[in-house]
Amino acid sequence: MQLLAGLVLYGVSMAIMIRSGLGLSPWDVFHQGLSKVTGISFGTVVILLGIPILLLWIPLRQRPGWGTLANLVVIGFVVDFALSVLPAGHALPAKIGYLVTGILMNGLATGLYIGSRFGPGPRDGLMTGIAGRFPRLSIRLVRTTIEVTVLAVGFLLGGTAGVGTVAYALAIGPLVQLFLPLCTVEPRRLSLVE
What we know:
- By secondary structure, the protein is mainly α.
- The chain has helices at residues 2-20, 26-38, 42-60, 66-85, 92-115, 122-133, 139-156, 163-183.
- The chain starts with a helix and ends in an 11-residue tail after the last helix.
């Protein structure tokens, strides 16, 4: 249930940030840019892009879990549904409210789905796979390189980058650090008495 709640909340948080119009996470700038260029819905782009990203896991020797596969599908459908029912923020206070709510929800959602221990999402696994395969590269360097690359390409394709992108970049690390320990499921040890 925690995995599903995290994935649904993640999809909703993405839609809320999109409706803020103030900027998206780097990956979502890329997703939105591809959506604009191809005419495919945002959520469908999220799902379809996850497939080649998962194929990149093979040479990195990353193994998907149930959470990886659920992440691939659930978030895309949820974000499309949420976009269909969520009105755009028109006034600046509404836009700021959407942005702050979206970032906070995204941090909690990340803590929930990663903390469920069913496997990372395709994009997270790409980062950890590269860092694991090339130990001289830090997670920070790998993550930053990936994020800057997808942000630049997404922006060139017409994705929305702005103050929200900067706010997300500054806030998501501390938020995940806060929520992940609170949401992490401890492995249960079975005894012979149980």
